[in-house]
Amino acid sequence: MQRLVPTLRRDGVSSDLVPVIRTLLAATKEIAFRVRQGALSGVLGSTLDENIQGETQKQLDVIANQLIKDLLLEEPGVRAIASEEEDNAVAGNANGKYVVAFDPLDGSSNIDINGQIGTIFTIFPALDGVAADSDEHFTQPGNRQVCAGYVLYGPSTILVMTTGGPSRVYTLDTTHGSYLLTQDQLSVAADTQEFALNMANQRFWSEGFKGYVNDLLLGETGPRGKRYNMRWNAAMVGDVHRVLTRSGVFIYPSDNRNPKQPAKLRLLYEANPMAMITENAGGKAWSETQRILDIQPDALHQRVAVIIGSANEVDACLNYLK
Ligand code: AHM
Ligand code: MG
Prior knowledge:
The chain is α+β, with helices and mostly antiparallel strands. The protein contains eight helices and 15 strands. The strands form three sheets. It has an eight-stranded mixed β-sheet with strand order 2-1-3-4-5-6-7-8, with helices on both faces. Strands 10-9-11-15-13 form a five-stranded mixed β-sheet, with helices on both faces. A hairpin with a 3-residue loop joins strand 5 and strand 6 (157-162). Helix 2 packs antiparallel against helix 4 and helix 5 (207-218) packs across helix 8 (311-321). It is globular and about 60 Å long. Magnesium ion is lined by residues 84, 103, 106, 236, 270. GO terms for molecular function: fructose 1,6-bisphosphate 1-phosphatase activity; magnesium ion binding. It is found in: Cytoplasm. It holds the Pfam family FBPase_C.
């Protein structure tokens, strides 16, 4: 099985970018270790304690954020970082060529139930002539990402990542701590009979979206002419991984629960990286009115609706929203 760096070289990844990716992934290996230790990692501590500066009793999401942040800010190639857990971007090395944004522990409600959780990340080129900690680096449209990935801390720890070419799957070999290539190319089927959606929000949806879901639920007797199944992990990483592996559509639509916040998921840390991975696996990723990767962001923590997965099912959904 091929290791990560030779695979990145095969993909023609710039030699400046490789160490940034390696550093980021080093942090995820430490998180994977913490996650596996579960409750023991807080109680018993570990050899990793020195990295966390006396914060051993903190929640895993706080620890994960600190680990990734600390390692990236020491990496010479990183101009700045932004995290779902931080209010503002944080400056790194003024000469760094890249900026990295991440959701350190996606699906954090699953920590307590020993369920699926993950890390989502994206890398953009740093902009010249812009202050190191400026949000501007991070408000580039998603089509400028040079790398997007997620790590799923499941029964095994896997990494799904694209650097512009195919979305590839790696599995963490815990015997020597390396991500090894286990699937050269992810490929999402165009059609599906599965959707991932929080049905409890139904009363807050638009009429168009209600109509789409209603027709899914009618199954073989309805206009869609087939029976659908529903799955919901409460962790985007787990749900999107299922969609990319077995086909499906993952949807978090806009709703009218809170007029100030019509969507839940973040463009920078969640929608953009998942959109790039999905498209490079042959799928489709739209917000309600445009391709996610073409959205011009206006704020660091901007939220957007997402419809991601099997291309024909994404199109079918979009038809109801016109
Ligand atoms: P988080 O980043 O705070 O964990 O929130 C994002 C998560 C996604 O992983 C998941 O798809 C969604 O929120 C679940 O939302 P809901 O609470 O509606 O089930
Ligand atoms: Mg998240």
